[in-house]
Amino acid sequence: MNVDQIILNLEKKHPGEKEYLQAVKEVLESIEETYNENPQFETAGIIERLIEPDRVITFKVPWSDDEGNIHVNLGYRIQFNNAIGPYKGGLRFHPSVTLSILKFLGFEQIFKNSLTTLPMGGAKGGSDFNPKAKSKSEIMRFCQSFMLELWHNIGADTDVPAGDIGVGGQEIGFLYGMYKKLARKHTGVFTGKGLNWGGSLIRPEATGFGNVYFAKEMLQTIGESFKDKTVSISGFGNVAWGATRKATEFGAKVVTLSGPDGYIHDPDGISGEKIDYMLELRATNEDIVEPYAKAFKSARFFPGKRPWEANVDIALPCATQNELNADDATDLVNNEVICVCEGANMPCTPEAIEIFHNNKILFGPGKAANAGGVATSGLEMTQNSMKIGWTREEVDNKLHQIMRDIHHACQTHGKQNNGYVDYVKGANIAGFLKIANAMLDQGLV
Ligand code: NDP
């Protein structure tokens, strides 16, 4: 495989799609050796077939605001690969959404879903719609219009969307309601559903919990744990919330949270009533970081800054892509961080990851370390198919075991001669082999 040539060709077909090209390049570089050891993959054109989505669905989403003004947003669904199961991946509503971002996320999702050991293919979708500061009825009208186009393309055995940035329980409810009306079916076509209409316990906190379970496994390999460690976390959304709770439960002190406007540092730790307070603020759809610093005297707000300058043992980037660059990585290394574990998708730039690897810091890539969310979505699909509901404990135990298994797979394929584990390589190879072999079995389709 000639990675540079493949990326060059891909760039010609998809000029300017930098996030997508970045994600493909990272995967190809780390699987190159394994790929070349298996000439049957080259003969079957596995890479060329894997890096292009099966299908890109694009549509317009017209909706009217509360004053009767008409708006038109773009809607997308990228059905990337269904070799090992129905297409599966979240929907993101955020003004920064582009085709490139969704293709990068869909591509990553293939490997992540493969790692979970559950039968799920890779997909992603969303819109450049900004749900911030919109009324509930505006959000409902937008979701209904979005679903009027999307519903033909999804189904419990075809393509199962879920939430992501800007799409939480409320949006899933509105989207599902419209799907149900149009399809005249009540099936497990979405995950992240409400608990009283097919949702799974633990799903809201699963990505953050899973992230901390994965970091715990990594820490164990060097005889460490979360106990008495300081932790910096970015964002305060779904993922950050779950990670904050679980890290605290494991005896760590979470000292930062952030938003696009800056970060807060609370040396007393963010736990208990402080987490509840953040959740209340979040429900208002307003900026949440600065008000926290006003409410709790121990906290300080650092406007326009990122949390990675804080002196911590463990860093969990849980906000968004490319939010931790080489300078941030250098700050963390200089402060003697021991573990960086991605809760978000691709939050660390390639340069930052190189710095962590060069300094032999434990580094958990998102496609392995945040797979707990989609794994629990897979558990929700199983419960829906069986028409049963597992208890909190049952789901949490299964999630914990899946994260242990993912960690083990990464170690198997990522352990280097000097004993250091390259989790990026391990995750990519483990995820890739399963998909590539399934594609081989299924012929040229
Ligand atoms: P949310 O929308 O719930 O939370 C995102 C958080 O990040 C918000 O607090 C947001 O602040 C903040 N944020 C956004 N942009 C920035 C920025 N530039 N700097 C600092 N903070 C920022 O999303 P999720 O928690 O669901 O998702 C977070 C990440 O995790 C994404 O990369 C997502 O793809 C990934 N992920 C999510 C999964 C899930 O189950 N939800 C599963 C696997 C991965 P504000 O609200 O003020 O904009």
Task: Please write out the topology.
Elements: H1 3-13, H2 18-36, H3 39-43, H4 46-50, E1 55-64, E2 70-81, E3 87-93, H5 99-115, E4 122-127, H6 136-150, E5 159-162, H7 169-183, H8 203-220, E6 230-233, H9 238-249, E7 253-259, E8 262-265, H10 273-283, H11 289-295, E9 300-303, E10 314-316, H12 326-334, E11 339-341, H13 350-358, E12 362-364, H14 366-369, H15 372-386, H16 392-414, H17 423-441
Parallel strand pairs: 3-4, 3-5, 6-7, 6-10, 10-11, 11-12
Antiparallel strand pairs: 1-2, 2-4, 7-8, 8-9
Helix pairs in contact: 1-2, 2-5, 2-17, 5-17, 6-7, 8-9, 8-15, 8-16, 12-13, 15-16, 16-17
Bound molecules: NADPH dihydro-nicotinamide-adenine-dinucleotide phosphate.
Please write the string of helix (H) and strand (E) elements: HHHHEEEHEHEHHEHEEHHEEHEHEHHHH
As a percent range, the share of strand residues is 15-25%
* Tally of structural domains: 2
Please provide the count of β strands.
Answer: 12
Rg: 21 Å
Mean of the pLDDT scores?
A: 96
Bound molecules: NADPH dihydro-nicotinamide-adenine-dinucleotide phosphate
Full CATH superfamily name of the largest domain: Leucine Dehydrogenase, chain A, domain 1
Most strands sheet: 7 strands, mixed
What gross morphology would you assign? globular
Based on the model shown, name its key terms.
globular, five-stranded mixed sheet, single chain, 445 residues, alpha/beta
Offer a quick outline of the entry.
This protein is an alpha/beta fold and 445 residues long. It has 17 helices and 12 strands. The protein folds into 2 domains: 3-186, Leucine Dehydrogenase, chain A, domain 1 (Rossmann fold, 3-Layer(aba) Sandwich), CATH 3.40.50.10860; 206-364, NAD(P)-binding Rossmann-like Domain (Rossmann fold).
